[in-house]
Amino acid sequence: MKKWVLSGLVALLLLLPFRVLAVEEAVSIDLPGASEVSPAIKAYKLIGIPVLPPSSTDVFEVLKGFFGSQADPGVWRLYAYVGGRYVEITGLDQDSVDYGKGWWIISAQAKTLNISGLPFPSFEWSGSMPAGYSILANPFHDTAIVWQDVVDYLSNSPLGLGAYIYKWSDVLGEYVIVTEMLPGESYWTWATQAGYIYVTRGPLGLGAESSGAGDAVRSSQPPPPLPPGAFLKLTSPSKGATLAAGRPTVIRWKSSGISPEGFDPRVDLYLSRNGGKDFTRIASKVKNTGKYRWQVPRKGCNRCVLKVVSVLYPEVSDVSDRPFAIVRDSGR
């Protein structure tokens, strides 16, 4: 009789849906505060939410409670990457939480997001992946994923996955190459072809075959997309400065988000003599060290303007806030 009762209970449990049997798990995501770092772009973070909250999977609904329950760009901002561009999430029904999904987030104040929900129930996760760069989060709440294992997984061979994945460093304010995907975080990943990507909890999966590390794309992998808030800022010559014609000076600038690891970040420098209407290049492919020793031309100018442009990301540039002057020395 006892044996029959136990067997019946087991059978009943097997018939229950997964959501009834599943145990909720929690993930903690630490956010730096934009008000506490400089430049503020360092406070951005690529996150993933590897649990499905039972009350709602709307990503705005899930996160808004940590930030005063409303969209406020002075308090927090959230971005999805859709169709090759950023879309800011400012309300309900724009995006949903799912395993493998990732977002950019920034918070004015440092805080920890503690989110509970149902973890991914299986050993192997799969999801669609477009050609080019996409944000991919670790789909598991309790397991670090070695990227090389994902590349080596035979099922991923048709994708032509990039050898490198990029994480945003809140210390450097730049992209860095990493080898592991951690729970609660997301990364820029590259695929040559669109298709389905497969990620397992362990190396290669149970009994899976390796495609070989040689299938990883290295030489053709371009720099990752710009992070939100990437910038170049000219700081010298200062507003209204006067430079001596024919004498050396130092052009200075600041930048963040345009120097990803694995690439040689450089800038082009331009001079305008008519207040910014027309520019002539004065230096090409200068290392992005933040300074360049410039031999000021001998020809004078009252409305000179400088421009600095990123070589890797030409859409990022800056122009002098105000014109400066180049004055000939009357004694020369």
How many E strands? 24
Q: Supply Rg.
A: 26 Å
Mean pLDDT: 90
| pLDDT < 50 stretches | 1-20, 210-215
Give the tally of structural domains.
2
Q: What is the strand and helix layout of this fold?
A:
Layout: H1 2-15, H2 18-21, E1 25-31, E2 45-48, E3 51-52, H3 59-64, E4 76-82, E5 85-88, E6 102-107, E7 111-119, E8 124-129, E9 132-137, E10 145-146, H4 147-152, E11 165-169, E12 174-178, E13 180-181, E14 186-191, E15 195-200, E16 231-236, E17 242-244, E18 248-256, E19 266-272, E20 280-287, E21 291-295, E22 301-310, E23 317-319, E24 324-327
Parallel strand pairs: 17-24
Antiparallel strand pairs: 1-7, 2-6, 3-7, 4-5, 4-6, 8-15, 9-14, 10-13, 11-12, 16-18, 18-21, 19-20, 19-22, 22-23, 22-24
Overview of the molecule:
This protein is mainly β and 332 residues long. It folds into two domains: 18-215, no CATH class; 231-327, Immunoglobulins (Immunoglobulin-like). It is built from four helices and 24 strands. It has helices at 2-15, 18-21, 59-64, 147-152, and strands at residues 25-31, 45-48, 51-52, 76-82, 85-88, 102-107, 111-119, 124-129, 132-137, 145-146, 165-169, 174-178, 180-181, 186-191, 195-200, 231-236, 242-244, 248-256, 266-272, 280-287, 291-295, 301-310, 317-319, 324-327. The strands form eight sheets. Strands 17, 19, 20, 22, 23 and 24 form a six-stranded mixed beta sheet that branches. A hairpin with a 2-residue loop joins strand 4 (76-82) and strand 5. The radius of gyration is 26 Å and the shape is elongated.
